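Help needed: design a sequence for this.
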């Protein structure tokens, strides 16, 4: 179930890309501290996110929307130009690749740790 109509947007970053940026920030630690945003410039709607998750899963899942539920901010877009400039860094994992990797990891963890009788 997706809250709202799915038109709200987000900018998602794969965890490995985020970790890489944080490690680069640590390498350049200084005083005053380096302050910048880490994120992804690519904007996606929640509807597109839900559709991509269904695609990656390979399952036939009907996406349902509940317009009576709150959706949070309609948009969140990080400004990452300072991270690109100061860290010589940019996120490189596509949304679909990140979701596929995460889905496969969860599937593996579930099958290894939750045996059905």
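Sure. Designed sequence:
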């Amino acid at each position: 179930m997706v809250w709202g109509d799915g038109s709200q947007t987000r900018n998602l970053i794969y965890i490995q890309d985020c970790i890489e940026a944080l490690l680069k920030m640590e390498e350049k630690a200084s005083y005053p501290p380096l302050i910048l945003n880490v994120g992804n410039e690519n904007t996606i709607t929640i509807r597109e996110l839900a559709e991509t998750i269904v695609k990656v899963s390979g399952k036939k899942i009907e996406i349902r929307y509940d317009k009576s539920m709150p959706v949070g901010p309609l948009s969140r877009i990080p400004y990452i130009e300072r991270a690109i400039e100061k860290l010589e860094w940019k996120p490189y994992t596509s949304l679909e690749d990140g979701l596929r990797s995460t889905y496969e990891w969860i599937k593996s963890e579930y099958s290894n740790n939750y045996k059905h009788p």
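The mean pLDDT is 91.
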